[in-house]
Every structure is written in structure tokens, then in C-alpha cells.
Design brief:
This protein has 18 helices and 42 strands. An 8-stranded antiparallel β-barrel has the order 27-28-29-30-31-32-33-34. It has a 5-stranded parallel sheet with strand order 3-2-1-4-5. Helix 4 packs antiparallel against helix 5. It is globular and about 85 Å long. It starts with a strand and ends with a strand.
């Protein structure tokens, strides 16, 4: 076994690999960019090497800088994680030529499976069923359109070298094909340096099921069962679970043996995932093989009890697989939810900013337990536009699927993030969704259940307003005795901070802005009795604060309002109260009339603004153009994904404020449209 491992990645996967390496007694080396100088993965390793600028192409995609870092630190192996250079055959080959073990398959296997088109041709020769489509080398747009017309719509355009939902579009009609193709090619070139695509028939109500395979240098190859990754948005996985609900032993064996055959066909070594698309009648088709560890590998670890990163390191060191096929068993059920900094209500757009507060349920980190968290950021870290906006992976295990689902619900209720938008509330609704609970899964579930998964915001209830108001009082030093200790008092009444006033009366008015509506709350004390009025009249009110991990920011509270108890955590940050309570999460803004008296209208108020920081990569209109509602105006790129900005209504373009190539900040006005 090598004694030093360089981890050529960042974020949670770099932390994940470092955790196993440390347990195995292997020294670790991190690499980092400008944006990651103080990142968690840097602190997780024994040594760190700076490799360049914040853009991936200036750092994590620089094979030369990473190989030099490995040489300089005496690393005997490089673990590429996933993404970046993990499936780059040239990088794998260069590492081997430098005498450094690449923790992954040989370059020849990456080459064979790295191109979706080539892989499908290989699988076709091996007799593995394929979805009807075109996987050839001719990339002429008109030729590809002709192929799509022949396949029949809807079709799916996919980047040949792609992954993670990037460079992928569903096209519903022939007229929309060329624009979608151009967008896919731009996104593929930006993300993978390769703009080639393939075309496939878009299956209706398909499930996405993948098989984890593992092979060693002694010729052994096994499959560690399957994962269901059907719940997706924008072609990117949101929920993964193992085993796949409804999977029969016969079908599991058929898919597993097909996956092993695919791995053997390319002389595979290490961890790999063979992905299939499955129809409701049980037929399955090969999609692609990811020649690396998958983001969702923890659910496989949970049900098998094996550490797949340890398996990777042992295989890379020339050791045989730790288990044979007949030794592998499925134990219970595991579900993984990806916690993202994104706004589900705005098309899952990434949310950029500093993570002012991060609260997590009791858990183990990077190790199996009832609740496990694999995370790459901490409170105070910044979610930047340069990388994937994942905050953490929340993984749970249960005796069966329903117990795992209930456990996930409990864990999500204890997951609290402030400073960026997150998908936590959306994930909770997903866990409660009737279709998900019944395991009626397919890749269109989120879109089909959109009305219930993405409902209109509801006004805060009285308990939420009471929790927010109590937090403000506690922050200002107003401590109230709880019901059992009330009346015991202090020796010196002048030391008390309980709202006492000469004459026995105290009153505090608070104005909360709740989804644009002002909600007035009055907290009052008459003698020793407290009341809170949210508009329906004064009600008896008690509150009690308990210890918090962040006492100057987060307040753990238990309130009693009109005889009903509620508990929650309130994070006060930037004039907002982030209330995490029994009724979910809610954000209220504390209205300060004096501060708002000086508000002024912006120079271009009312214009079409940038929903996130990013770069303008194309503009399709100019001043004077007449546009219709929904017409694309420009395309922004952020986090390696393209986002089209469309006209909110009919009108005339008055001014375009930026040009192609310009970087813009969130909220910047992009286009002014008049009536």
C-alpha cells in the first residue's frame, strides 16, 4: 500500500476520500484553487498544494499542475474523485507514466467508456440492449436533425463526454432541435472540452437504475447491487436509494451480470457504475458507464457494509477484491438526499453566497450509521459560482424503505442553512409525496408532481411569528422566567432583564415582512403576565431559550402560546429571522421604518435582472426589437450550466445593458423592456 495519496478534487468527495485514507493510515495531500484557499477539504488533509485560479480550467482541470504536486509531495497515488479529471484518459495515462498509481480504471477502459457514442457501439456488439438513437461521429447539425426526425420526437440530446445533467436537452419538436443542439454543444464544450453529442429516443416514464461494479487486477469482478436514481431535476439526480424499489431477484441478477459483462469487455479495474434506463414493463437499456466513483456511492455502502473508497485504494495498490459475489448481501434500505444551495421555486437556480449558519442532525461523518452526512462545507464557507453548489449529502439507513423515508424526514427537519437558498424544504415535501412514498418512481416524477412539490408560499402562522419575536427579545437581553420558575425572582430587582417597567407595563411592537406582506406583532407584559398579539387579540405567551451551538446567531426556543407548545431554532441574520420549527422553515424580515425611510429606486428599477452571478454567453435581441412573452433574450452561464433569460411579457427592448462575455452580479439589470 502506498503511504501518500494526492486527492485531485475538492469539496465533499475530497473530504470523503481523506476520511478513509486517514483511517487506513495513509498520508493525504490536497490541491486547491484561489476560491478554495480556506476550504474544508484543505483542512482535512495533511498537506495542501496551490494549483491555480478559481475557474476549474485554471486549477482542478490542470493535469500538469496536479501531477507536479504529486511529484513534489512524494505521492504514490492520485485519487481523482468524481468530475474534473476523474474520467480523463490522458490524465490517467500521464499518472501511470509518471510512476504514480491512478485510483481508477486503466486509460484504455476510460477511453472505451468515456465517449457515450463509442460505449454504445461497444455494448451493441456485446449484445446489451440499447435505446434507439444515433451514436455516430457525424456531428453536422443538419445531419443530426435528420437523425432526430427519423427517431421521432421527443428526443434527448446528450453530450458524448457528459455527466451531471450538463450538455443535455429534451427536444419536443423538429423546429426546436437546432437551437437546443447549439446550446448543448456550447455547454458540453465549456464543461468537458468536447462538444460532440448523441441523439436518443426520449422514453416515457422511465426509471434510472444503475449497477455498482468493482474489478481488480487479478481478474475478479463483482456487482454490489443496484441504486435507483430516478428522482431527478434538470437531468441531475436529487434522491438516490438502494436497493431499487420493486426489484426482483431475477432482474437484479440479469442487470448485475450485464454490468459485469460490460466491465469485463473493456478490461475494467476499480469502481465503476453501469447505468441503465428501465421501462415500466421491466425492459432495460444500457445508457452509459461512469468510470469512477459515483456521488451516490454511500447508499451502496450503507446496504452492503463495505467502504468503497477503501476498496478503490486496495485495488489500486494491486490487492484483490475484499469480497466475492457470493459474500455480498443486502441489509435494509438506504436513501441519499443531495442538499444543494439552490432555489427550487426559481427553476432550481444555484444560490451564491456565504453559508452564515449550518445546522445538521446528530450524525456520523463519512461512515455508516442510521444518519450519515458527507459534507464539504462549513459555517462561514462561501458557495461560489465556480463549482457545483452542493452543501452536503444526507444519507439514512432503515430496516426497510418506509423506515428509511421516515428517518430522512426527521433528518431533513434538523438540517438548517442560512445565507443561501437551499432545497431542504423541497426535499421534505418530496419525502412526503404520495407517489414517492408508494415508490411510483420515474425520471419525470418532480415535473409531474410540481403542484404539490413546489406550492405557492404560505403565510407564517402565529407560532412561527411568536418564535421569531421571542428570538428578537432574547437577542436584546430580555430573559423571561419559564412557567415553573416564574415568581422566584432575583435578590436584586434592578438586575432582572424581564421587561419590568414602573407601573408594571411593558410593550414591544415588531413588524415582520412575510412574503411581501407586513405582519404586526405586539409583545406585552402586564404585571407578571405576558401576551402576544398577531392580529387576533392578545394571547398568553411564555418562552424559554436553551443553549445553542451559535449563541450569537442561533436561538433554540420553546414557546407556549395560548396553551400550545412549539419548539424551534431561530437564526437571526441580516435583519431576517430564519425560523426552523415544527411547521417547517420560514424566513421573515424584520422591518425597520427608519432604515427603509431612505430607500431609493435603482437606476433601472423594474428591469429584467440576473437571477444569479454569471457570464453572458449569447444575446439574441437588441434595442428596438419587439419581443413576445417567453421569447429567449439572452443566455447566462453559471456553475457550468446554461440558463436562458426570457421575456416576461410582450414589449419592446429599450436597452441591453451588457455584452457577450460580460460577468454580471445577482440582481444586475440585463435588459429593459417597455410596453
Amino acid at each position: 500500500m502506498f503511504d501518500t495519496l494526492l486527492i485531485a478534487n475538492r469539496g465533499e468527495i475530497a473530504c470523503r476520500v481523506a476520511a478513509t485514507a486517514r483511517r487506513m493510515g495513509i498520508r493525504t495531500v490536497a490541491v486547491y484553487s484561489d476560491a478554495d484557499a480556506n476550504a474544508r477539504h484543505v483542512a482535512a488533509c495533511d498537506q495542501a498544494v496551490y494549483i491555480g485560479g478559481s475557474e476549474p480550467r485554471a486549477s482542478y482541470l490542470r493535469a500538469d499542475a496536479i501531477l507536479q504536486a504529486a511529484r513534489d509531495t512524494g505521492a504514490g497515488a492520485i485519487h481523482p474523485g468524481y468530475g474534473f479529471l476523474s474520467e480523463n484518459e490522458a490524465f490517467a495515462q500521464a499518472a501511470q507514466q509518471a510512476g504514480i498509481a491512478f485510483v481508477g480504471p486503466p486509460a484504455s477502459a476510460i477511453a472505451a467508456m468515456g465517449s457515450k457514442s463509442a460505449a454504445k457501439s461497444l455494448m451493441e456488439k456485446a449484445g446489451v440492449p440499447l435505446v434507439p438513437g444515433y451514436h455516430g461521429d457525424n456531428q453536422d447539425p443538419q445531419f443530426l436533425k435528420t437523425q432526430a426526425d427519423g427517431i421521432g420526437y421527443p428526443v434527448l440530446i446528450k453530450a458524448s463526454a457528459g455527466g451531471g445533467g450538463k450538455g443535455m436537452r429534451v427536444v419536443e419538436s423538429s423546429g426546436a432541435f437546432l437551437d437546443a443542439l447549439a446550446s448543448c454543444q456550447r455547454e458540453a464544450a465549456s464543461s468537458f472540452g468536447d462538444d460532440r453529442v448523441l441523439i436518443e429516443r426520449y422514453l416515457q416514464k422511465p426509471r434510472h437504475i444503475e449497477i455498482q461494479v468493482f474489478a481488480d487486477t487479478q481478474g475478479n469482478c463483482v456487482y454490489l447491487f443496484e441504486r435507483d436514481c430516478s428522482v431527478q431535476r434538470r437531468h441531475q439526480k436529487v434522491i438516490e436509494e438502494a436497493p431499487a424499489p420493486g426489484m426482483t431477484e431475477e432482474r437484479r441478477r440479469a442487470m448485475g451480470e450485464a454490468a459485469v459483462a460490460a466491465a469485463r469487455a473493456v478490461g475494467y479495474v476499480g469502481a465503476g457504475t453501469v447505468e441503465f434506463i428501465a421501462e415500466p414493463d421491466g425492459r432495460f437499456y444500457f445508457m452509459e458507464m461512469n468510470t469512477r466513483l459515483q456521488v451516490e456511492h454511500p447508499v451502496t455502502e450503507m446496504i452492503t457494509g463495505h467502504d468503497l473508497v477503501e476498496w478503490q485504494l486496495r485495488v489500486a495498490a494491486g490487492q484483490p477484491l475484499p469480497a466475492r459475489q457470493e459474500d455480498l448481501r443486502i441489509n435494509g434500505h438506504a436513501i441519499e438526499a443531495r442538499i444543494y444551495a439552490e432555489n427550487p421555486e426559481k427553476g432550481f437556480l444555484p444560490s451564491i453566497g456565504t453559508l452564515a449558519y449550518l445546522g445538521l442532525p446528530p450524525h456520523t461523518a463519512f461512515a455508516n450509521a442510521d444518519i450519515r452526512v458527507d459534507g464539504g462545507v462549513r459555517t462561514g464557507d462561501t458557495i461560489t459560482p465556480f463549482y457545483d453548489p452542493m452543501i452536503a449529502k444526507l444519507i439514512v439507513h432503515g430496516a426497510d424503505r418506509d423506515q428509511a423515508r421516515q428517518r430522512m424526514l426527521q433528518a431533513l427537519a434538523q438540517t438548517q442553512a442560512v445565507g443561501v437558498q437551499t432545497n431542504v424544504a423541497f426535499l421534505s415535501r418530496l419525502m412526503k409525496d404520495t407517489a414517492f412514498a408508494a415508490a411510483d418512481l420515474d425520471t419525470g416524477l418532480i415535473e409531474r408532481q410540481r403542484a404539490t412539490l413546489l406550492p405557492e408560499p404560505q403565510p407564517a402562522d402565529a407560532a412561527t411569528l411568536a418564535l421569531a419575536s421571542a428570538a428578537v427579545l432574547v437577542r436584546q437581553g430580555l430573559a423571561q422566567p419559564n412557567a415553573t420558575s416564574a415568581g422566584k425572582g432575583r435578590a436584586d430587582p434592578w438586575d432582572a432583564r424581564d421587561g419590568w417597567r414602573l407601573g408594571g407595563q411593558y410593550q414591544r411592537h415588531l413588524q415582520w415582512v412575510d412574503n411581501g406582506e407586513t405582519r404586526r406583532v405586539t409583545v406585552a407584559r402586564q404585571g407578571g403576565a405576558w401576551t402576544l398579539d398577531t392580529g387576533a387579540g392578545p394571547q398568553p405567551f411564555l418562552w424559554r431559550a436553551h443553549a445553542s451551538a451559535n449563541p450569537n446567531l442561533a436561538y433554540g426556543l420553546r414557546i407556549t402560546l395560548a396553551g400550545h407548545e412549539n419548539a424551534g431554532t431561530v437564526v437571526l441574520h441580516a435583519d431576517r429571522a430564519h425560523v426552523f420549527g415544527d411547521n417547517g422553515a420560514h424566513v421573515l424580515e424584520l422591518y425597520d421604518p427608519l432604515a427603509h425611510a431612505q430607500d431609493t429606486q435603482g437606476e433601472h428599477a423594474g428591469g429584467l435582472t440576473a437571477p444569479m452571478p454569471g457570464k453572458i454567453i449569447s444575446i439574441s435581441v437588441k434595442a428596438g426589437d419587439t419581443v413576445e412573452k417567453g421569447q429567449p433574450l439572452l443566455v447566462m452561464e453559471a456553475m457550468k450550466m446554461e440558463h436562458t433569460i426570457s421575456a416576461p411579457g410582450d414589449g419592446k427592448v429599450e436597452e441591453v445593458f451588457y455584452g457577450v462575455g460580460d460577468q454580471v452580479t445577482e440582481g444586475a439589470e440585463l435588459v429593459s423592456i417597455g410596453a
